[in-house]
Amino acid sequence: MKKIIIGNWKMNPETAKEAQGVFSDVALGVKGFRKTSVVICAPSVFLEAMNALKIKGVSLGAENCFFGDVGPYTGEISAVQLKNIGVKYVILGHSERRALGEDNELISKKIKSAISAGLKVVLCVGETSRDEAGEYLSFLHDELVESLSKIKKVDLKNLIIAYEPIWAVGKNAPRSATPEDVHQATLLLRKILVEMFGRESGLGVPVIYGGSVNTKNALEMITLGGVDGLLAGRESLDSDKFVEIARIANTV
Ligand code: 13P
Q1: Could you identify the atom of ligand 1 that is nearest to the CA of residue 168?
Q2: 98 lines ligand 1 (CB under 6 A)
Q3: What whole-number distance in Å separates Cα of residue 46 and Cα of residue 13?
Q4: Residues above pLDDT 90, as percent of the chain
Q5: Active-site residue, selected from the candidate residues 94, 127, 143, 235
Q6: Contact status, residue 217 vs residue 180, Cβ threshold 8 Å
Q7: How far is CA 14 from CA 17, 25, 108, in A?
Q8: DSSP H or E run through 250
Q9: pLDDT tens-digit profile of 24-81?
Q10: CA of 72 to the centre of ligand 1 (A)
Q11: How far apart are CA 153 and CA 197, in angstroms?
Q12: Rounded distance, CA 40 to CA 60, Å?
């Protein structure tokens, strides 16, 4: 399986020109990386301008979408609309959207809709904090099972799971995740996928890690953490750092 390196730009940058600039620099930098798929997920307002660059070798992703194809949903953007402007991936269930009120039920509808529209879904799951009794493990279990409640086996080829523990995300994160933290959680996620969809299909779903990914921890997260790729936030806005993360993944 190719390693998957995804950048989530969040609500950055401020202009389409800057977005195009970082996108083309990344494309230039990752040219020839054969063992890695690189994706940039950007704010919806920039996606058309980025797609217009006709860049090869880096796929375009959105950071959210709504369910349904058209309809009376003021301010929302559908998966079909994204697909029609050249988008290939969409992040769903990110903790920053869950914090705004998205629940597993809504996320499950969005996933179904996005996959039907032909997008690949990057589903984010992750606990707010860890506890001695391991309650967070059942939280993770329920989050994954409920978010995937509308998904069938045939949909799995268009699904990536991103383990993003909320306590390790962002510059104010209380602590960094260790590769052991990541390994433990991803083992659980893979086990749940196997329980839900059977061994072969369940183990075929890539599980990646996100939360303060940088050029220093990328290698150990992949090798010791046992993940199929990385989802970088802050470091993906710096083309040099993001390319370096992809280069590291490409050597594994
Ligand atoms: P940071 O890499 O900035 O911690 O963000 C992680 C993230 O939320 C990616 O989706």
Answers
A1: 4
A2: no
A3: 9
A4: 97
A5: 94
A6: no
A7: 9, 17, 31
A8: helix 239-251
A9: 999 999 999 999 999 999 999 999 999 999 999 999 999 999 999 999 999 999 999 9
A10: 32
A11: 6
A12: 5
Q: Is 151 in the pocket of ligand 1 (CB under 6 A)?
A: no
Residue 109: predicted pLDDT: 98
Q: Which of 58, 60, 49 is nearest to 15 (CA)?
A: 49
Structure-token pair, residue 182 = 């990541």
Q: Measured between alpha carbons, how far is residue 193 from residues 40, 156, 226 in Å? A: 26, 10, 16
- Arithmetic mean of pLDDT over the chain: 97
CA nearest to 89, candidates 229, 197, 191, 217: 229
Q: How far apart are CA 27 and CA 243, in angstroms?
A: 9
Q: Cα dist. 207→152, 178, 188 in Å? A: 18, 16, 11
Cα 37-189-202 angle, rounded to 5 deg: 70
Tally of CB atoms within 10 A around 195: 12
Q: Residue 81 C-alpha to ligand 1 middle, in angstroms? A: 25
pLDDT at 174 over 90: no
Backbone angles phi, psi at 77, to 5 degrees: -130, 130
- Residue 232 in contact with residue 242, Cβ under 8 Å? yes
Give this prediction's pTM: 0.97
Task: Give CA torsion, residues 165, 235, 216, 29, to 10 deg.
Answer: 130
Helix axes 104-116, 135-147, angle to 10 degrees: 40
**pLDDT, tens digit, 9 for 90 and up, residues 195-229:** 999 999 999 999 999 999 999 999 999 999 999 99
Q: What is the pLDDT of residues 145-170, one digit of tens each?
A: 999 999 999 999 999 999 999 999 99
